[in-house]
Design goal:
The protein has about 180 residues and is mostly helical. It has one domain. Helix content is about 55%, strand content about 5%. The protein has eight helices and three strands; from the N terminus they run H-H-E-E-E-H-H-H-H-H-H. The chain has helices spanning about 1-15, 20-25, 55-75, 80-95, 100-105, 115-130, 135-150, 165-175, and strands spanning about 25, 35-40, 45. The protein has a three-stranded mixed sheet. The longest helix is centred in the middle third of the chain and has 21 residues, at about 55-75. InterPro entries: Peptidase_M76_ATP23.
Length: about 180
Amino acid sequence: DPYARLLLEALKQSGCTVFNDRHFSCENCDGCVGGGFDAATSQIVLCQNNIRQQSHMNRVVTHELIHAFDHCRAHVDWFKNVKHLACSEIRAANLSGDCTLMNEIARFKFGLKGHHQTCVRDRAIRSILAVRKVSKETAEKAVDEVFDACFNDLEPFGRIPHSKADAKRAYRDFQNRDRYTANL
């Protein structure tokens, strides 16, 4: 998957190499969550009882790898700062493919103008409420306060990848990012 390949390479370049046997865990989970990122162990949990399709697993892995990347590069305070959590959830919803047009149509949610941003905001709020015992108002306020900056933080993709083709282009661009300045 080009999304995962790019994120794994970005993590490695940031000094946080991911090892499949150490940083991924398949478990049975409660509810209908697809996965999670455990900051205490830097481990991605995949909910094997809730993931039924390869495309869903790819999105979950990408979403959680974005959290791992944020944990590595930004030293996110997951437990005490709801704005940090909100920012990573915005980035994950924005960059993982969670809000593609096809996924939104499958959820019977679609619109034209500004729909991607609306989807990202709604999914970030839902994710915060799923992992923290905060009020909906607290989650909404945190998302609203950091939305613009975090929505526009496209690292390491450099763009919002709306398809696998976009993700492949972003991966090639990422690989060549320092190529031209390295010899200066």
